[in-house]
Amino acid sequence: MLILNFFVGVGSSLLINFLLGSLGVILGLSIFLSGIDLSISKIGTMMGDFLARFNKIFKVVLFGIFIGFVISMAELDLLILASQVTYTVGLSPWIIVAIISLGVGIMISIGLYRIFKEIKISKIMWILYITIFALMFIASETGHAIAFDASGATTGAMTTPFI
Length: 163
Prior knowledge:
Helix content is about 85%, strand content about 0%. With about 160 residues, the chain is an all-alpha fold.
């Protein structure tokens, strides 16, 4: 932006606001990522140790669905999306969030199953992409848009570091 300022000539007050905002974002993200390193990463390590004790894959899959559901339900971006889409779909925002969160939980359980059964990720990806493309032909264009936005909303500040 500073180099662009030489060619475009942005006002000094706007440039100062931009630099202060950039500094705030850098500082905020640094504090946020330090907090993740101190807390959520350690929780993830403890959960991995906890999962390794399970002797039945069924328990691991259930735990994956549960943890994915709970974490995704806590994502505020998802609730905002659901409240915006509720008039289009005709469902309560909480039902929309629950459906999307259940999908996240199922995907986490598939990932855990893959790890425990040592299945190649390429096989899982082929199966999932073929399933997604098949569902695209069944769903409406509104469903495509909601699914695309939901995938972005579930990768928010809470869900991504935890998963």
